[in-house]
Amino acid sequence: MTDLVSEAFPVVSDLAEFPAALADGVVAIGNFDGVHRGHQAVLGEALEIARAQSVPAFALTFEPHPRTVFNPDKPVFRLTPEPMKARVMAATGLDGMVSLPFTRAFAGLEAEAFVHEILRDKLHIRHAVTGYDFHFGRGRRGTPDFLRAAGQSDGFGVTIVTAATDEAGEAVSSSRVRAALAAGDVVEANALLGYRWSVAADVRHGEKRGRDLGYPTANLALPAETELAHGIYAVRARANGGEWIDGVASFGRRPTFDNGAPLLEVFLFDFSGDLYGQTLQVMLAARLRAEERFDSVEALIAQMDRDSAEARAVLASLAPLGPIDLAVNGPPR
């Protein structure tokens, strides 16, 4: 068993290791990339049904993202890699997560086999909850109506959750979150998620330019498919799950210097220490401005001073977006 969160929230990828404690439970099924407010509606419905019947509730999800499997040359910009997905799932109140490996062979599984071999015989479910747009099985034959009919014949309940909408009446989706991040609208992305989005990577050695400028940074290389807008961000960061520290970060190609490969460069306020080789989680609160090229190092430093002051002001008034944000990202500093 792979435990990504804690012993209280098991995460398994092998059906042979499915915990007996989750059997006869309510399963929420989906890709759940981002675990956004629309996904949370599905998970919340599963929790409500499970608690009413005094049985466990868990999620069934898939890794990697199916679109990446079918088009590996254009991998999907993942909002929540598996460890973060599990963390957010745990914050919703679920009792566990099954994360099945998604392969072309798995995609070729007939819809009937998915129901009989996985849902019925392996997971022993009492009830299944999915979103209105979830499909499964070879050729996507497993529609919501198919699942309802299968539940009637195999003795488990089925609930299909309609699209969750935002305050403007627009459907909440992973695509909308990705589009907001690509546009640099972190506030919009966080509102759709219901918690503040973050990235995590190991701190690597850089060119040490920040140190020379009076702004030593922790440098992170994000996956090439990351579609975050280049620019300057107010952030909080923590190393290896430790305490959050306020800071300011630049994501981009450093046009004043080398216009190289994109890096996330994080300057932590009032911090001194060695972060090399540690995993840094960086939570994005707001985008302050676009990336710019400066005519002189002095002009760059003056702007960095202004960016730092603005980031401090933004972070000073930061409050949790809700219970999930509080559980995932901790209380305000």
UniProtKB/TrEMBL annotation:
Reactions accelerated catalytically: FMN + ATP + H(+) = FAD + diphosphate; riboflavin + ATP = FMN + ADP + H(+)
Q: Which Gene3D superfamilies does this entry report, sorted A to Z?
A: HUPs (3.40.50.620), Riboflavin kinase-like (2.40.30.30)
Is Thylakoid among this UniProt entry's keywords? Answer: no
Q: What is its EC number?
A: 2.7.1.26, 2.7.7.2
Q: Name one GO molecular function term.
A: ATP binding
Q: Which UniProt keywords apply?
A: ATP-binding, FAD, Flavoprotein, FMN, Kinase, Multifunctional enzyme, Nucleotide-binding, Nucleotidyltransferase, Transferase
One GO term (biological process): riboflavin biosynthetic process
Source species, domain of life: Bacteria
Q: Could you tell me which residue ranges the Riboflavin kinase domain spans? A: 192-316
Its UniProt pathway annotation is: Cofactor biosynthesis; FAD biosynthesis; FAD from FMN: step 1/1; Cofactor biosynthesis; FMN biosynthesis; FMN from riboflavin (ATP route): step 1/1
Functional description taken from the UniProt entry: Catalyzes the phosphorylation of riboflavin to FMN followed by the adenylation of FMN to FAD.
The entry assigns this protein to a family as follows: Belongs to the ribF family.
Can you say what this protein is called?
Answer: Riboflavin biosynthesis protein
Q: Which source organism does the UniProt entry give?
A: Stappia indica
